[in-house]
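anyone else get weird line breaks when pasting these?? whatever heres mine. first is seq + tokens for prot A
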Amino acid sequence: MNETSSTIDRDQVWATYAIAVADVLEREPAEIRLGQDFRDDLDLDSLGFFELVLELEDSFEIDIEESKAESIRTTDEGFALVCGYLGR
């Protein structure tokens, strides 16, 4: 992402977030919605979750702490975590 985190609004963050999640899940970004459980709704296994964290770190140029990453269960929680890192 070429924009600095200070110029990114929540809609842009969501769009990038949905693309990152969709890429890992091999789905379309439009299929990613708030409220989805990564394991139950999106069939994300442990390896996929690790890939997702790496994808989010790359997409947003952030370094997600392992303890925080382990607490993510839903798309809402992941989005909130990314927004927190970006100050949104």
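and prot B, same format (seq, then tokens)
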Amino acid sequence: MQVRQHVRMEVDRESPQAPYRQVAEVLKGRIISGQYRSGSRLPSIQDLVQEFGIARTTANKALRLLESEGLAELSPGMGFYVSQTTNPPSVLTV
């Protein structure tokens, strides 16, 4: 059985950047780092509400922003997934 741990992250309410954009940036970083791989399910709206202490509409806007940027795809009734065409940048070794 897999146990999910929720580490509470807060959005910066003093930032000029909207909270949904802050959340989208965190998720984008996780995609780029490979924490969320191509085709894997992204956190649900409820998961984001709990993790970031945000409203459901804010969580939805963050996921929709990733979708509009081509990083996420919505599977109706299933949730958001990392886009199949999303590949983290390759690491160059010298």
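btw re prot B: The chain is about 40% helix and 10% strand. The first strand starts at residue 72 and ends at 75.
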